[in-house]
Amino acid sequence: MSQSSVISMIYSLYDDFYPQEKKVADYVIAHAHDVVNMNNSELAKACETSVATISRFVKKCGVESFHQFKVVLARDVVLGEDVQVSSTISLEDIHTSIANIQANKMNEIKATLSLLDEKQLKEVVALLSKAAMIQIVAVGNTIPVAINAQYMFNEIGLRAMAGTIWETQLAFSMTLTPQDVMIAISNTGESKDVVKMIHNAREGGAKVIAITNNPQSTIALLADYHLQSATREKLFLNEFYFSRVSAMTIIEVLYLFLTVGHEKSYDYLSKCENLMVDEKL
Predict the structure, then answer these.
(1) Which fold has domain 114-279?
(2) Where in the chain is the domain with CATH 3.40.50.10490?
(3) Distance from CA of residue 155 to its chain's centroid?
(4) Which of 26, 27, 40, 103 has a C-alpha 20 to 30 A away from that of 240?
């Protein structure tokens, strides 16, 4: 936990908090500067909850004590991780709404990049570069991220497969071998369909890379590698809405590391562009 943002952890775990814990989460996000100087009794009073709830909350965030929680939170404050962005979106004030959307997206990308572990990222890039086949699996609103990843990897010469039909993805996952890699994308990390495909991949000996915003989720814990995406949005009905931007950012990071400085990747990109040039106006 000492290397991660506690603010990012609160966002990623928000849906798993009980109602009383969500009171604490909301208060910490909105008043991080003040919380750093509070004791647990003062925070409990401010949130209209109990000291026991505060204790459960900080442990869910991956820290053992309220003191340690404040230490990590103080670092977030210094680094600007606690910056509050308005979630107001209204056609009555388009200028302000666009500014709010821009700030949310920028915070989301910044937080996602800050969560990437350098050692793990290096290992993931090496794994993907040598894979015989990369299957990218997703269901629901993360499917477009998987389809985009397939195209990006294909155009630099990496064999990759993604699909919009779950049954097709499931059947393909049963064909993976120890030379293959699966990338599993899920917001919550609790998709039963994705979990089934991960089990198939592991049974075949393939390595699994998970992209979720919850490091404690089933999918994150099942995977060999976990790349955490961040969410900084609270736009719809006061609930946290999963943007594809953070997951897409991770895919683009992988793409760039797999491309830059690799002559073979440039050759494939050039060939791909030449094949499609006649289709452009």
Answers:
(1) Rossmann fold (3.40.50)
(2) 114-279
(3) 24
(4) 40
- Residue 250 token pair: 């991770």
CA 260 from centre of chain: 23
Q: What is the mean pLDDT of the chain?
A: 88
What local confidence, expressed as pLDDT, does residue 80 receive?
64
pLDDT score, position 235: 44
CATH 3.40.350.10 corresponds to the domain 6-79: no
pLDDT of residue 214: 85
CA angle 251, 257, 263 (to 5 degrees): 125
pTM of the model: 0.78
Which SS3 state, helix, strand or coil, does residue 212 take?
A: strand
d(CA 151, CA 14): 32
**200 is written with which tokens?**
């198939």
Nearest to 198 by CA among 125, 139, 248: 139
Q: Determine which helix (DSSP H) or strand (DSSP E) holds 207, and give its type and residue range.
A: strand 207-212
Q: Which residues of the chain have pLDDT under 50?
A: 1-3, 82, 235-237, 240
What's the rounded Cα separation, in Å, for the pair 234 and 236? 6
Over residues 21-34, the pLDDT tens digits come to 999 999 998 888 89
CA-nearest of 1, 2, 9 to 232 is 9
What distance in Å separates the CA atoms of residue 274 and residue 228, rounded to the nearest whole number?
Answer: 36
Query: Contact at 8 Å (CB) between 229 and 251?
Result: no
pLDDT, tens digit, 9 for 90 and up, residues 70-98? 988 888 887 665 455 566 778 888 988 88
d(CA 128, CA 207): 10
Name the region of 50 (left: φ>0; alpha: ψ -120 to 50; beta: rest): beta
